[in-house]
Amino acid sequence: MMLQLGYIGLSLATVLILYFIGNYSILKSVDDIQQQKKKRMILITGLLLWQIYLFLLGQSGILVDFSFPPRFVLLMILPAFIFIGTFLRRNKKAKWIQVIPPSWLVGYQAFRIIIETLFVYSVVAGLLHQNVTIEGYNFDMVFAFTAIIMLFVLYRSKTLPKRLLLAWNYAGLLVIASIIFLFLTTIYTPEIYGPDTAPFPTDFGWYPYVLVPGFLMPSAVFVHVLSIVQLNHRAKG
Most buried among 108, 142, 181, 233, using CB within 10 Å? Predict the structure, then answer.
């Protein structure tokens, strides 16, 4: 029960943070009060509808079936990535992106320290495979701590270190890509990790654990890409 509350609590916290960032950017980039209300409602509706979708999906039991093709990829990760690419491509020159403080986008990634900690306890509870945690081949916790270091660098820098931030964001995306690879290979080709590799626990296909591939991971990707778009625009400017 405590683990479930942990995943739900972390997801709720990230939803509130994303709303705060979104609302700030709306207020700073839109002058018309009615337009502010409209965009704020779109933001709230989008966040809530995706959470409802993940809840229904996670409660249905459809994601407990790990047969190929991977349902969690087709029903959660792929739609989220398509949205991220399409949305940010269309808004790459939008004013709302540029008004967000770069340090907020860096600091957001620190939430991954908590999720990786939850992963460790999930292994103990038999809900997750050791391979995809810091006890195996997942070093996302190490990267997450660099968010704190980057915040210190930003605080100490007189000018925005754009190249350093760009490299850091791309590194973060590579880490996430490696985690997706770990999940897929541990589920579908566990033999590459040794003949005695245990099967992946199917319980992670239930709610609230589906919040990890369905919301928490995509939100980290979204913020990384958002930061890259912001930095590239500032570099051109």
Answer: 108
Half-sphere exposure of 233 (CA within 13 A, CB side): 19
Can you tell me the distance from the alpha carbon of 221 to that of 213, in angstroms, rounded to the nearest whole number?
Answer: 11
Q: Where are the alpha helices (DSSP H) in the chain?
A: 2-29, 33-60, 71-72, 78-90, 95-98, 102-108, 111-124, 140-156, 162-188, 211, 217-236
Task: Name the average pLDDT for the chain.
Answer: 93
* Cβ-based neighbours of 51, under 8 Å, separated by 6 or more: 11, 15, 215
Sequence-distant (6+) residues with CB within 8 A of 102 are 154, 160, 165, 227, 230, 231
User: Is 9 in a helix, a strand, or coil?
Assistant: helix
Q: Who contacts 112 (Cβ-Cβ below 8 Å, separation ≥6)?
A: 140, 141, 143, 144, 147, 220
Cβ atoms of residues 113 and 145 within 8 Å: yes
Enumerate residues 6+ apart whose C-beta is below 8 A from 202.
64, 65, 66
Q: How far apart are CA 191 and CA 186, in angstroms?
A: 8
Exposed (0-12), middle (13-18) or buried (19+): which is 120, by Cβ within 10 Å?
Answer: middle
First to last CA, the chain: 50
